[in-house]
Structures are given as C-alpha cells and as structure tokens.
Specification:
This protein is an all-alpha fold and about 160 residues long. The protein contains three helices and no strands.
Length: about 160
C-alpha cells in the first residue's frame, strides 16, 4: 500500500522546491536587470550613438538588397505567365492549377514588398527612439554633473 501522508509531504516538498527555485530565478533576473540599467546609465553617449549609426547603415543596405531581390523575383515570376485555358482535359486542370499558383506567388511577392516597407519604417522608428533615449541619458548625466559641481561650490 502507498502511504498517502508521505506522498503528500513529498508533493508539498516538491512544490516548495519549485517555489524556491522560481523565487531564486526572479531574484537573479532582478539583479541582472539592475546591473544592466546601471551599465546603460554609465555608458558614454558616443558608444550608444556609434552603434545606432552602424545599425542604420546595415538597415539601409538590407533594405536595398531586399528591394532589388523583390524586383528580380517579380520580373522572373511575372504575372504574364498566366495563359488562357482552351482545353477540357487533364492538361487543362494542370494549367488551371499552374495559373492559380502563379497568382499566389504574385500575391506573395506583393506581400513581401509591403512587409519590407513596414520593416524599414519600424527600423527607422526604433533608431529614432534609441537616439532620443541616448540624448535623454546624456542630459541626465549633464544635470547630475551640474548638481555635483553646485554642491561642491556650496560646501
């Protein structure tokens, strides 16, 4: 027979272990976020803006490559491939499915172009937000230094 009291206490111990592990992970995550915040507030502004410029240049190059690729794909898979169907045999069914496949590929290319434009816009917004954040951090550091100098002068 199974001893239910021992089984329940083992299950409770298992739950307690899980809670302790979860709490430890939360503490580690909190300390990590705190350390990251401390590091970000102490980083010189040129380090932040330098990586932003690199990111902007990489985004522009990727955007140009994607546009060129989508134009090439559009030219290769032009919708003029669709032919009118004149027969009513197996070949006509095959032609019908081929035409619908070509139309779906054309729709996919158009969706791809739309997604490229959206990604470019989001990248530009992200770069703008990062630039604003970096400038705010710089202002905060300047104010903190000014207050420190003022306190030193008063003493």
């Amino acid at each position: 027979m199974v001893n239910l009291k021992n089984h329940r206490s083992e299950a409770g111990f298992s739950i307690l272990n899980k809670l302790v592990i979860f709490g430890t992970l939360i503490l580690i995550a909190g300390f990590t976020m705190g350390a990251a915040t401390l590091y970000i507030t102490r980083v010189p502004i040129h380090e932040l803006t330098g990586s932003i410029q690199t990111l902007k240049n990489a985004m522009r190059i990727l955007w140009v490559l994607m546009v060129v690729m989508s134009i090439l794909i559009t030219i290769v898979l032009s919708l003029t491939i669709v032919r009118p169907i004149k027969r009513k045999k197996e070949l006509s069914y095959l032609s019908t499915h081929f035409n619908s496949t070509i139309l779906k590929i054309g729709d996919s290319v158009q969706l791809f172009d739309t997604n490229i434009a959206m990604m470019q816009q989001m990248g530009n917004e992200l770069a703008s937000n990062i630039t604003e954040t970096a400038s705010t951090i710089n202002r905060i550091q300047t104010l903190a230094q000014t207050e420190s100098v003022t306190e030193t002068m008063e003493n």
